[in-house]
Amino acid sequence: MPFSGRLTEVIDSQFDGNKRKFSKKTGIPYTSVVEFANGVKSDPKLSFLVKVLEVIGYENIVWLTNGFGKLKNQKLQAKVADKMLEEDPEASAIKQKELETMISQLKQNLDERGKMIKVQDELIENLKKNK
Q1: What's the confidence (pLDDT) of residue 32?
Q2: CA 29 to chain centre
Q3: SS3 assignment, position 83
Q4: Are 110 and 50 in contact (CB under 8 A)?
Q5: C-alpha span between 102 and 130 (Å, rounded)
Q6: What is the distance between the alpha carbons of residues 73 and 10, in angstroms, rounded to a whole number?
Q7: 71 burial class (0-12, 13-18, 19+ CB within 10 angstroms)?
Q8: pLDDT (0 to 100) of residue 24
Q9: What pLDDT shows up at residue 33?
Q10: Staple 30 to which of 23, 61, 73, 85, CB 3.0 to 4.6 Å?
Q11: How far apart are CA 49 and CA 101, in angstroms?
Q12: What is the pLDDT along the chain (131 residues), one digit of tens a residue?
């Protein structure tokens, strides 16, 4: 599934398909949301991805950016963690540590991807200047 499909899935599941509501909540211009959702643009910048992830709460940036893995909703995970806490506080603490480790790794991956994107943007700018 291309990025446009994954973004549309996010908008459909979290904002009832309302791109304007998604745009307003994320602070991303509506035209950009439409262009990415329709596949006119396909390579979002890091700032776009960060805004999406901060608002909708998806922790699986790999799924959002590349389509690998599965879409995971933190709200659902929070409900599961609450249920675990009710049933077994010790198991919940272990799960919380696992989630914190995963989030830390995802943030590190995001930082690394951001650095790669910055280098790519610089290379593109240099190529444009040399034409």
Answers
A1: 94
A2: 17
A3: helix
A4: yes
A5: 42
A6: 10
A7: middle
A8: 94
A9: 95
A10: 23
A11: 21
A12: 788 888 898 888 888 899 999 999 999 999 999 999 999 988 888 888 888 888 766 556 777 777 766 655 545 445 445 554 565 656 556 666 777 777 878 888 888 888 888 888 888 888 888 86
Task: Region of 28 please: left (phi>0), alpha (psi -120 to 50) or beta.
Answer: beta
Q: Does residue 51 contact residue 74 with C-beta atoms inside 8 Å?
A: no
Phi-psi region of 126 (alpha: psi -120 to 50; beta: other; left: phi over 0): alpha
Side-chain-facing half-sphere of 108: CA atoms under 13 Å:
6
Residue with tokens 């549309």: 8
As a whole number of angstroms, the distance between CA 83 and CA 67 comes to 29
